[in-house]
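One such shown below:
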Amino acid sequence: MLIGKPNTSFVGHKPDETAINDMEFCAVLLDRGQSVEAWTLLHRQAESIPSQFNKAICLIRVEEYASALPLLEQVLGILAQTPQGLKTPESPSLRTIQDVQATTKAYTEAITFKYAELFPETLKDSVLRMMVDCHAALGNHNKVLEIGTPLKSKGYQNVIDAIKKVEL
């Protein structure tokens, strides 16, 4: 799916059961470090939020940052057309969980169709965080600041670290 076209994963048309099962298996493969197998499986998928995001993960794992960026940008374009997902409940306990999770690499884990459907705002932040990582690795300091500065207040450790390196 190209930027500008409706996201057929969520707008009037759900992915079929085979696509859903394949993407769930892809997430398992990536979790197990089997990027070759995941990449092979992803190439039989139609373009969607999870397929493009998970392809970007494969590329980032082999330090192909410049190749990952267009995929991440495509995901952002699709997310802009995606309905809002679940509302995060307010609670002090959840704030503690969020603070801890912001310091982890959870944002670089594979996703499924269900995750993309339920948590598009969290996914958007994950995409932006991955873009910060890619631009930092490529030495694109202006892009690190442009993308990372609005995220800095959320306490994302990778963003804070990338901005600190740029500002040195």
Q: What stands out?
A: Residues 1-12 have pLDDT under 50 and may be disordered. The CA atoms of residues 17 and 68 lie 27 Å apart. The longest helix spans residues 120-138.
